[in-house]
UniProtKB/TrEMBL annotation:
Its main location: cytoplasm. Belongs to the TsaE family. Keywords: ATP-binding, Cytoplasm, Magnesium, Metal-binding, Nucleotide-binding, Transferase, tRNA processing. One of its GO terms (cellular component) is cytoplasm. It comes from the Bacteria. SUPFAM superfamilies: P-loop containing nucleoside triphosphate hydrolases. This is tRNA threonylcarbamoyladenosine biosynthesis protein TsaE. NCBIfam families: T6A_YjeE. It is found in: Cytoplasm. InterPro entries: P-loop_NTPase, T6A_TsaE. GO terms for biological process: tRNA threonylcarbamoyladenosine modification.
């Protein structure tokens, strides 16, 4: 399991990092986002969307709708599971349709997926360290998660070897 830790000094830096990652995403990729309210999960998804060529301004938190789909070079499915205490039986079939299919899934509050979280994914944990600063910890799960981390470091050498 490969890991990388980055300090972001602003929402713009968080989006830029995620945009670099978004440029390397492929069908079936899952980005599992974790962090408290206000940590920057939706900002990270905005950056992923930019990297996928989704028009700017389209991404908002889908808290009330559970999922939003955005069209870019690939379809980005943005799931926000904040309102679910756990992935309940009523929504399991719907959630499974979004994971591992021909689209990219970015899942906020991914811990609520439980066993539905694909074993091959990239975990992104955001921690508030200051008014604008965030510690972003990326962990590659499975070979695809590790490939995404390697691609991110190759695209952004200033991140350092860190893996």
């Amino acid at each position: 399991m490969k890991r990388l830790q980055i300090l972001s000094r602003s929402p713009a830096e968080t989006r830029a990092l995620a945009g670099r990652l978004g440029a390397h995403l492929a069908p079936g990729d899952t980005i599992a986002l974790r962090g408290e309210l206000g940590a920057g999960k939706t900002e990270f998804v905005r950056g992923l969307a930019q990297g996928l060529g989704v028009p700017e301004g389209e991404v908002a938190s889908p808290s009330f709708a559970l999922a939003h789909e955005h069209q870019g070079r690939l379809t980005l499915v943005h799931l926000d599971l904040y309102r679910l205490s756990e992935a309940s039986a009523e929504v399991l079939p719907d959630l499974e349709d979004y994971l591992g299919g021909p689209q990219v899934a970015a899942v906020e509050w991914a811990e609520r997926l439980g066993n539905l979280l694909p074993p091959e994914h990239l975990e992104v944990r955001l921690e508030i360290t200051g008014a604008q600063e965030r510690r972003i910890s990326l962990t590659g799960h499975g070979s695809r998660g590790e490939e995404l981390l390697e691609a991110l470091v190759a695209a952004a050498p200033e991140l350092g070897p860190g893996l």
